[in-house]
Design brief:
heterodimer, A: about 700 residues, alpha/beta, Dna Ligase, domain 1, 9-stranded mixed β-sheet, 36 strands, globular, B: about 600 residues, alpha+beta, 7-stranded antiparallel β-sheet, 5-stranded antiparallel β-sheet, about 30% helix
Chain lengths: ~700, ~600
C-alpha cells in the first residue's frame, strides 16, 4: 500500500496526517523540538505509524509523497533569527524599508516606538544608478562604486543580499549586473533580485519581499536540505513537496530558490482543507474557513471553489510589520484563541485579547503560573471542556483555579463566575465575527450564502454561535479539525504563479502587447511544467488574471480572464464588463465614462496530484467507553443557565446520527459544543454538520 | 452635568455595548477601504487624505475608527447643518458640503453626507470627507495661503447642497464641478469614491438596525456616549488641578504677515469636576489671508492636543467632547471665522500650531505628561504639482504629493514617530510610492532620505525629517505649497531640544541652490529641481539623560551623527560603525556628560 504523509510543524506540536490509498486519514502528534526539527517530524510520523500498526521505517518506505509545512520561516522572522542580510538600493533612496507605506492605527497613541526596518540602515547601501519610469537608463550603473560596496559586504561577513533598484521592473539591466558581481565577488552568498522575485510596481512591497526572501535563504536552504537528507537516510524514496503561501505545494528545489513562499506555509493550507471537506458534503463553492488555535484565529475565504488571494500580507501588524508583498492566500489573522486573556478597561468595558497567555504559562487552568482568565478558562467554567479529559486525556486541568479567575473578573462586571465566563465568550465571539465580517461582507460576500468550515483545536467551542450571528446556514466541523493544515496539504496541488506588468488601456487596447506578455508567462509555465515531469499528474490547469483599475485609480482589482488571451473587441468588452461588476460589488459604484487601465497580468498553473477517495478520519477508539455520559454545562444569552448536557466520544457515533443540543462531542484533538436548540448530524464520513 | 457622578451608569448590557460599538467601527473601516481603493487622485488613494465617520441624525459624532482627527472632529457640525437646512431630506439623498462657515474644515475637504433612514426615520448621517486634488481655487493648489478672502481664494463652495436624490446624481451640480475643477475626470472619480463609501455605510447601518431593532440601537447610542464620557472623566481625574499656559507662533509670511501669527492657549484642568476648559479668545482677529482656522478645525485641533495627552484608547466622540469646553470668539484667527475671511489652509499650518501648543502645554504639568512639538511644515515634498504630461498627449495633471515624512514629537516614553507628517494627521496618512508617482505624473524624484541629527535631542528623541529632491520630466511644472516651521521649529519639552527647522530650495540647471522663503510657488523647467526638507520633531527630557545604549544604536543606524552624540548627548563611542566595533566608552561618557552639565550651569 502506498501512503501519503503531510506534516505541519507548529510552534508547540508537530502534526502528521497520513492518508492510505482509500483516503482514510490518521493523525499523529509529537512535541516540536526547535533545535532538532526532524525529531518532531519523525515523532509525529511514528505516532501515526503506531496507529496503523506499522513502524516508522516501514511507513516511510511505503509512502510515495511527503508534504512538509512549517512555521519555521515565520518564526525565524518573528524572533529575528534570519541571516545577516544587506540591502542594495538605488542611490538616493536608502530608507524604503524604514518608511514602509506610512499609516498607523491610532492617531493619539504617540507613546510607542517606531518599528525597526527589516534590514538595519547600517546594512543598507546605496548604489549609484537610476532607471527611469519608462525603463530608460537615466544614470548608468557605477560598477567601480558597486564593487567597493560589495568589498565592504565581504568584510562585514554578510550572509545574504537583497537587491531592489527603482524601476528594475521596467528594465532589470542594473539588477542583473549586480547579481553577476555578487556571484563573482561573494560566491556562495545568497542573494535575491527584486525584479526576478516579485516584479510589481511600488518600491516598498517589492523591496520588502526581496529583503525577506534573501534573509530566509541561508536558513531555509539548510533546513530543507537537512530534512531531505534525514528523510532519505530514514528510507524514504518518494517525492518531497512543501506547503507554500500560495495555498498549494511546491517542489523543494523551487522553494529553496524562493523561500519567501514558506512564510505562512502551514496556515495557507487551511482553506484547501476547508474546501475539500465542504466539497465532500456538497456545501457549494463559497466557503468561510476558520482555524482557531491557542493564540490566533485565522479566517480565509473560498469563492467559487477558488481560494482567495491577496497582495497585502503582513508579518506582524499592518503598517508596522513587514509586508510580504507577494501574492499569497488571504489569511486574516487576529489575536483571539483559547489562550486569549479577558480584561476590563478603566471605563468598565470587557475585552478579550489580543494578549495571549500562550502555551507558557498558558491559561489559569493549566496550573503553570497563569493568573489571568482566558477563553479556555471560561470554557472550563462553563463545562465545555472536561478538565479530566483535555486533549484526549493528555493533560489534567485545574477547574477550581479557572473558576476563581472568572469570579475575580466577574466582580468588576457585577457578574458571577458563570455569567462572566459567558460574557468572555460573547466578547471573544464578537472579535471573531468582526474578523469574518472583514473578509466576507466587506468584500461583497454574504455569509448567509456561504458554508463555514471550522478547523483548529479550539474552534468547536464557540463556532456555532458565531455562525448564527453571521447568519451562516451550514457549519461543518471535521473530526480531523485538530490537524487542519496538514489535512489541507493532502488535498492540495502543485501551484505556481508568474506575473508581469504591462499597462494597457481599454480605449486603445494593445492586443499584441498584452498577448505577447501572456505568451511569455505561458512560456515560463511551460518550462516549469516540463520540470515536473518526474511525476504523473492527473491533469494541469491554467488560470489567467488581470489586475485592473479605472483610469488613474491607484489600487487594482483582480479580475479573472475568461481565457488565456484577449484577442477580439468582443473579448475585451467582456473583460471590461467583468471589471465593472467586480468594482460595483466591492465599492458600490461603477464609472462607465472612464477607460479601464490594466496593469499586471498573471498566469497560474495548477498540477493536480490526483487525489484519492474523499478524505475521512480513520475510526479509532477514543476516550472512555461508549456508555452514555452527561455533565452540567452552562448556556444563555446574558445569564448562564445550568443544563444537563449529553457528552459523546467522537468516532463512536454512527453516521446519520442527529445529536441534539445541548451536547458536547469530544474528539482526541478537538471539542464540538452543540448549543441548545441546535443539532449536529454525523456525516457519512464521520464529520459533524450543523444546519442553522 | 458637571458632576461626574451624575453620568448614568447605564443599564445597557455592557457586552452588547462592546459588540455594537465594534460594528460601528467596522462600518467606518469599510467606508475607508472603499474610498481608498476606488479613488483616483494619489492624495486620496495613496496618501489617504480623507476620513469617514458616522454621526447621529441630530449631529453628534458617534464613530470614527481610524479617521484623521482634523477631519472627523467637527464632521458632526456638518451633520447638524444638514438637519437645519434640509427638513425635506429623504432616503436616497446625498449632500455635498465643503463650507467652512457651516461646520466644514476647509473648502478642499469636499464632504458627502448621506442621511440614513430606517423605517422612515432619519437615524444616522454617514460622512465621507475627502481632500480633493483640486477644488477650483484661483491658483493650482488646494492651500491658497495668500488669498485675502474667499473671492480671491476662488474655491467652489457647497453649503450642504443636495447632490443626489433617489440615489441619482443631480447632473447640474456635477456639471458645475466639471467646469470649475481642474482635471474633471479625476475629480468625478474621487467624488464617486466618496459616494460609494457613504452608500456602503448606509447599507450596513440599515442591516445593523434591522438586526438589533431601532430602540436597542438608539439606547446603544446614548450608552456609548455615556461610556466614552466616563472614560474621559476617569482620565481627567488623574491629572493635577491647575492652569496651563502656552504660546507659539506661525512663521512670518513675507508680504502678508511679516510678524507671523502669534498664538496662545490657556487650559484649565479641573479633576474635581472632571472638566478641561481651553480658552483661545485672547488670540488676534482673523488675518487677511488663507491661514484662518475654521470653527471645525479650531475645535478639532485643540481636542487633538488634549486627547494626545490623555489615555490613547479612549473612544473619541461627542460623549468625550462633553468633558472638554473650548472657548472661542467670533472673528478670531483661531475661533469662529468672519465671512469672507479665507480658511483655505485651515487644516494645516495654524491648525498644526494649535495641536503642538496644546499637547506641549500638558508637558508643563510634569515629566510623564504631554508631548513635545511635531513637524509643522508641509514641505515641497508634499506640494501640489500641476502641468501637462508630454507622455500623455500633454494632458493636464494636478495632485498633492506625499513624499515627505515629517518628524514626530517625542513623548516621555518613546522617540518620535517617523511617518508622522503633521500634528493634525498624527501619522495616519499613507506615503506615496516614488514609482507610482513617477508613473502617474511626469516627475522624476532624485532622492528621498531621512536627515541625520534633525530630530530634536532629548532623553526621548524627536523623529528626524526627510529631504526630498525632484523635478519635472519634459514640460514645465508648477509647485505650490505653504510651509511653516522654517523659522520657528518644533520645540522640545522638559529639557528636550527643538527639532531642526524645515526649509525649501530650488536647484538650477547649473547646480546652484536657492532657498525659497515663505510661500513656495515655483514653475520649474526640465533640469531644474525643488528640494523640500521637513522639520524634525522636538525632544522630550534632557539629552544628557538618554540611555547611552540608545545613543549607540542611533549612531550605528545613522539617526544621529557621532559628533552630535558627543557634543549634545555626551556619549563618547569607540570603534567604527563599518567595522562593527562601535561601543560606548562609559568612563569618557561620564566625563563628557559632567563637562556639558558644568558648562550649562556656567
Amino acid at each position: 500500500m502506498a501512503y501519503r504523509i503531510a506534516i505541519d510543524t507548529g510552534g508547540t506540536f508537530t502534526d502528521a496526517v497520513v492518508a492510505d490509498e482509500a483516503g482514510a486519514l490518521t493523525i499523529g502528534k509529537a512535541p516540536t523540538n526547535p533545535a532538532k526539527s526532524f525529531e518532531g517530524v519523525s515523532g509525529a510520523v511514528a505516532d501515526a505509524a503506531r496507529q496503523l500498526g506499522l513502524d516508522f521505517a516501514d511507513l516511510l518506505a511505503r509512502s510515495e509523497i511527503f508534504i512538509y509545512g512549517t512555521t519555521r520561516a515565520t518564526n525565524a522572522i518573528v524572533t529575528g533569527r534570519t541571516a545577516k542580510t544587506a540591502a542594495l538600493f538605488t542611490e538616493g533612496f536608502p530608507d524604503i524599508l524604514v518608511y514602509r507605506q506610512g499609516g498607523k492605527f491610532n492617531a493619539h497613541r504617540l507613546e510607542v516606538e517606531y518599528p525597526d526596518p527589516y534590514i538595519p540602515r547600517s546594512l543598507t547601501y546605496e548604489i549609484p544608478e537610476r532607471i527611469g519610469a519608462e525603463g530608460g537608463v537615466v544614470k548608468p550603473l557605477d560598477e567601480a562604486a558597486a564593487r567597493r560596496v560589495l568589498e565592504r559586504l565581504k568584510a562585514r561577513k554578510v550572509e545574504a543580499i537583497a537587491v531592489c533598484l527603482l524601476w528594475s521592473i521596467a528594465n532589470p539591466v542594473h539588477e542583473v549586473r549586480l547579481g553577476a558581481l555578487i556571484e563573482e565577488m561573494l560566491p556562495g552568498v545568497a542573494y535575491t533580485l527584486s525584479h526576478r522575485l516579485n516584479p510589481i510596481l511600488r518600491e516598498y512591497p517589492r523591496a520588502s519581499s526581496t529583503a525577506i526572501d534573501a534573509s530566509l535563504k541561508p536558513l531555509m536552504q539548510a533546513h530543507m536540505r537537512e530534512l531531505e537528507s534525514e528523510l532519505r537516510a530514514a528510507g524514504y524514496r518518494g517525492d518531497i513537496l512543501v506547503s507554500a503561501s500560495v495555498g498549494g505545494v511546491m517542489n523543494v528545489k523551487d522553494v529553496i530558490e524562493r523561500p519567501i513562499f514558506m512564510v505562512k506555509s502551514g496556515p495557507a493550507m487551511a482553506p484547501v482543507a476547508g474546501l475539500s471537506f465542504a466539497q465532500n458534503e456538497s456545501l457549494g463553492g463559497d466557503v468561510i474557513v476558520v482555524d482557531t488555535g491557542g493564540t490566533t484565529f485565522d479566517v480565509t475565504l473560498v469563492q467559487n471553489s477558488q481560494v482567495r488571494f491577496t497582495r497585502e500580507t503582513w508579518l506582524g501588524e499592518q503598517y508596522t510589520g513587514h509586508n510580504i508583498g507577494m501574492g499569497s492566500v488571504d489569511i486574516r489573522s487576529i489575536g483571539a484563541g483559547g489562550g486569549s486573556i479577558a480584561w476590563i478597561d478603566s471605563g468598565g468595558l470587557l475585552h478579550v485579547g489580543p494578549q495571549s497567555a500562550g502555551a507558557k504559562p498558558g491559561p489559569v487552568c493549566y496550573g503553570q503560573g497563569g493568573t489571568e482568565p482566558t477563553v479556555t478558562d471560561a470554557a472550563v467554567v462553563l463545562g465545555y471542556i472536561d478538565p479530566k479529559n483535555f486533549l484526549g486525556g493528555r493533560m489534567t486541568l485545574d477547574a477550581a483555579a479557572a473558576e476563581r479567575a472568572l469570579e475575580a473578573l466577574g466582580k468588576a462586571l457585577g457578574l458571577g463566575a458563570k455569567d462572566a465566563a459567558l460574557a468572555v465568550f460573547t466578547v471573544a465571539n464578537e472579535v471573531m465575527i468582526k474578523a469574518i465580517h472583514e473578509i466576507t461582507i466587506k468584500e461583497g460576500v454574504n455569509p448567509a450564502e456561504a458554508a463555514l468550515v471550522a478547523g483548529g483545536g479550539a474552534a468547536g467551542l464557540n463556532i456555532l454561535p458565531i455562525a448564527r450571528a453571521l447568519d451562516v446556514k451550514r457549519v461543518l466541523m471535521p473530526r480531523a479539525a485538530g490537524a487542519f493544515s496538514a489535512c489541507g496539504a493532502h488535498f492540495s496541488n502543485i501551484v505556481t504563479e508568474y506575473g508581469a506588468s504591462r499597462v494597457a488601456y481599454s480605449n486603445q487596447f494593445d492586443f499584441a502587447g498584452v498577448n505577447g506578455t501572456l505568451a511569455a508567462l505561458d512560456a515560463r509555465l511551460d518550462e516549469f511544467q516540463h520540470g515536473l515531469a518526474t511525476k504523473d499528474f492527473s491533469r494541469y490547469e491554467r488560470h489567467y488574471f488581470v489586475e485592473a483599475r479605472y483610469m488613474n485609480q491607484n489600487w487594482e482589482l483582480e479580475v479573472p480572464l475568461r481565457k488565456g488571451r484577449v484577442e477580439t473587441k468582443a473579448e475585451l468588452d467582456v473583460l471590461v464588463e467583468d471589471f465593472h461588476n467586480v468594482h460595483d460589488r466591492m465599492f458600490a459604484v461603477r464609472d462607465p465614462y472612464n477607460p479601464v487601465e490594466c496593469t499586471n497580468w498573471k498566469a497560474r498553473l495548477t498540477a493536480y496530484l490526483g487525489h484519492r477517495a474523499p478524505p475521512s478520519l480513520r475510526s479509532a477508539a477514543v476516550g472512555s467507553s461508549g456508555a452514555p455520559r452527561s455533565r452540567t454545562a452552562y448556556f444563555g444569552e446574558t445569564r448562564a443557565a445550568a443544563m444537563s448536557t449529553q457528552v459523546l466520544a467522537g468516532g463512536e457515533i454512527a453516521a446519520g446520527t442527529v445529536i441534539k443540543g445541548p451536547a458536547i462531542i469530544e474528539e482526541p484533538t478537538t471539542t464540538l459544543v452543540v448549543y441548545p436548540g441546535m443539532s449536529a448530524r454525523v456525516t457519512a464520513r464521520g464529520d459533524y454538520l450543523v444546519e442553522l | 452635568m458637571n458632576d461626574p457622578t451624575m453620568i448614568p451608569n447605564t443599564s445597557f448590557d455592557p457586552v452588547l455595548l462592546a459588540v455594537i460599538s465594534n460594528r460601528f467601527d467596522a462600518i467606518v473601516r469599510e467606508m475607508t477601504n472603499t474610498l481608498l481603493r476606488a479613488a483616483r487622485s494619489a492624495v486620496l488613494a495613496v496618501a489617504r487624505d480623507f476620513s469617514c465617520s458616522i454621526s447621529t441624525a441630530d449631529g453628534r459624532l458617534l464613530a470614527t475608527a481610524e479617521g484623521v482627527p482634523v477631519h472627523v472632529f467637527g464632521s458632526q457640525l456638518q451633520a447638524a447643518s444638514l438637519l437645519e437646512m434640509h427638513p425635506e431630506r429623504q432616503e436616497g439623498d446625498a449632500y455635498l458640503h465643503n463650507d467652512p462657515y457651516l461646520g466644514n474644515s476647509h473648502p478642499a475637504d469636499q464632504t458627502v453626507l448621506v442621511p440614513v433612514f430606517f423605517e422612515g426615520e432619519h437615524l444616522f448621517t454617514a460622512v465621507a470627507k475627502a481632500h480633493q486634488a483640486d477644488c477650483g481655487n484661483s491658483i493650482p493648489t488646494t492651500y491658497h495661503a495668500a488669498a485675502k478672502d474667499v473671492y480671491e481664494e476662488g474655491s467652489l463652495i457647497f453649503p450642504c447642497v443636495l447632490v443626489q436624490r433617489d440615489f441619482k446624481d443631480n447632473e447640474d451640480i456635477i456639471r458645475m464641478c466639471r467646469k470649475r475643477i481642474r482635471v474633471p475626470d479625476q475629480w468625478y472619480g474621487d467624488y464617486l469614491a466618496a459616494i460609494g463609501a457613504a452608500r456602503i455605510a448606509e447599507r450596513r447601518m440599515k442591516e445593523l438596525t434591522a438586526k438589533y431593532g431601532r430602540e436597542t440601537i438608539k439606547a446603544f447610542v446614548e450608552a456609548w456616549f455615556d461610556y466614552s464620557e466616563r472614560r474621559t472623566v476617569n482620565a481627567i481625574r488623574k491629572l493635577p488641578k491647575g492652569r496651563l499656559f502656552n504660546k507659539t507662533s506661525h512663521d512670518p509670511v513675507p508680504g502678508i504677515l511679516p510678524d507671523g501669527i502669534p498664538l496662545q492657549v490657556s487650559i484649565e484642568v479641573d479633576p474635581d469636576s472632571a472638566m478641561i476648559d481651553v480658552d483661545l479668545r485672547e488670540n488676534i482677529d482673523c488675518v487677511p489671508c488663507g491661514l484662518n482656522e475654521s470653527m471645525a478645525c479650531t475645535m478639532a485641533n485643540v481636542m487633538i492636543g488634549v486627547f494626545n495627552s490623555l489615555e490613547w484608547d479612549i473612544p473619541h466622540n461627542s460623549g468625550t467632547f462633553r468633558r472638554i469646553r473650548v472657548h472661542l470668539r467670533e472673528n478670531c484667527v483661531v475661533g469662529i471665522p468672519k465671512f469672507p475671511h479665507s480658511c483655505s489652509v485651515a487644516t494645516t499650518n495654524v491648525g498644526d500650531r494649535l495641536v503642538n501648543m496644546t499637547q506641549a502645554a500638558f508637558a508643563k504639568i510634569s515629566d510623564g505628561h504631554g508631548l513635545a512639538e511635531g513637524n509643522t511644515c508641509l514641505s515641497a515634498g508634499c506640494a501640489v504639482v500641476s502641468g501637462d504630461d508630454a507622455r500623455r498627449a500633454n494632458g493636464a495633471y494636478i495632485n498633492q504629493m506625499f513624499l515627505m515624512s515629517g518628524g514626530g514629537p517625542a513623548s516621555s516614553k518613546s522617540d518620535g514617530w517617523v511617518n508622522y507628517l503633521l500634528p493634525v494627521a498624527g501619522g495616519l496618512l499613507y506615503r506615496d510610492s516614488v514609482e507610482l508617482d513617477e508613473q502617474k505624473y511626469p516627475i522624476h524624484v532624485r532622492s528621498q532620505r531621512l536627515v541625520p541629527d534633525s530630530g530634536g535631542a532629548g532623553r526621548q528623541r524627536g523623529s528626524p525629517g526627510t529631504e526630498v529632491v525632484y523635478g519635472p520630466r519634459n514640460n514645465r511644472m508648477r509647485v505650490v505649497i505653504q510651509p511653516d516651521g522654517c523659522i520657528n521649529p518644533p520645540q522640545g519639552v522638559q529639557g528636550g531640544h527643538a527639532g531642526r527647522p524645515a526649509s525649501n530650495w530650488w536647484i538650477d540647471k547649473d547646480g546652484s541652490k536657492h532657498q525659497i522663503v515663505g510661500l513656495v510657488d515655483v514653475s520649474l523647467t526640465p533640469g531644474q529641481n525643488v528640494v523640500g526638507v521637513d522639520g524634525g520633531g522636538g525632544g522630550y527630557g534632557d539629552p544628557l539623560t538618554r540611555d547611552p545604549s540608545r545613543v549607540l544604536k542611533d549612531v550605528r543606524e545613522r539617526w544621529v551623527t557621532r559628533g552630535t552624540a558627543e557634543s549634545v548627548y555626551g556619549v563618547v563611542l569607540s570603534g567604527e560603525a563599518e567595522a562593527e566595533t562601535l561601543a560606548i566608552d562609559m568612563a569618557a561618557t561620564e566625563r563628557r556628560r559632567a563637562e556639558i552639565e558644568q558648562a550649562a550651569r556656567a
